[in-house]
Amino acid sequence: RDGMVLKPPTDWWFRHLGLLTVIGALLGGGLGVILSDYVAEANERTLEVVGYPGELFLRALKCMVAPIISTSMIIATNQLGGRNTGLAANIAVIYYVTTSVLAGGATLAFFNLIQPGEELENPFGTLDEDNPFNDPTFAANNATVVDTVLDTGRSLVPDNIAAAFVNMNLIGVITFFILLGLNLDPSGHGQTVLDFTSGLYHALLFMMMRLVYVTPVCVLSLVASSVGMHAHELGSLGKSIVLGYVTILAADAALLFVCYPLLYLLLVRKNPLWHYRGIVRAWTTAFGTSSSAATLTTTMECCKDMGISEETCDFVLPLGATINMDGSVCNIAGVALFMAKLSGTETNFQRQAVVLLTAVLCSIGSAPVPVAGPVALFVVLAAADIPVIPALSFIFALTWLSDRLATTVNVSGDTFAAAVVDAIMKRRDPDEQALLPASAKKGGSEDDDW
User: Fold this and answer.
1) Predicted structure pTM score
2) Which of 365, 310, 432, 9 is nearest to 174 (CA)?
3) Which of 19, 93, 227, 344 is the most buried (most CB within 10 A)?
């Protein structure tokens, strides 16, 4: 991002954070099974104490949501508004938004087909009349499509931005700060606001990186507490988690091997298998780093080797690393709906529509670094009134794998977008530089930040 440099940590703990988190989950599961034998005899307060560090961890993550999402939306949309000055930008943005919607739609389709969590007889944290998440707006069975559209519109346009923060109406918060970012003028007094926002966003991301250092310990705490409390349901829960990840993987596969190649055939008019062969190195780098930004150099080299023009690569791929998070949309939407099932929350049409809309909006402002996933997930959970329950710890234990798969899909989408933009521009005008933003042309300033 402009004005922000995130250097990959080199210490042993952070480099092995995924493995340590899995170990923490396994140890927590063992501890929970041991504790479950004594819950009936001892006070359940023991499990509450065991899960206390994990509870504080979840509270800290939720506390970071609103500041990070508001600052990231200002920065991302302001940069996008500054770059959106040519046909290449218009095509790229339309393509990225379209594929993000397709990603969310595929996730919803497979979720309704597979129904992970449906087999649980006693969901974790089942809603009752006193549960604050049992929102009658969402729970109404007689809500029509018109009601859904009207209620979503009211959420998008808050009448009080401070109240939107307090009530966690994050859809309204996102809308407000998207418009603010688009209307800040970098050439005037708006640059002061942008400099402050960029510095704040930078600091918040580093706070998040420091927070994820304790993920293994906190996952151990959450898993131990959850397993100890619900040891009799572990079989059903394990099956539900497997089905939940099958849902996400099916959506990723549909996007990667159906949607992308069909768009490629339609717009580029070439065999997509040739494209897949050219991006294998980008796949391996994306899976290893779990970061679109860290993979960007490799992605650009792969695209240029396939004959995509340097000007298109220098513009479309960095833009995609900022706003194209198709794999993350599948991951976040799938986990959010799965959490709704585990908590006994109704997954009706309106809630699914809010999950889809929020996941797509979050993909615009998510940082292309591994720590951004939990923030976007909590945004979606809050926007759709889905409670955060201890069972989320099982999802955190597998984040190391799901994030890498999501990054691989994100990078693949960037390469397909570059191929589509390049093909359309060459068909419309052989001199494609005439259609690119001025700073993306050869001979432009070397100081231009992409």
Assistant:
1) 0.70
2) 365
3) 227
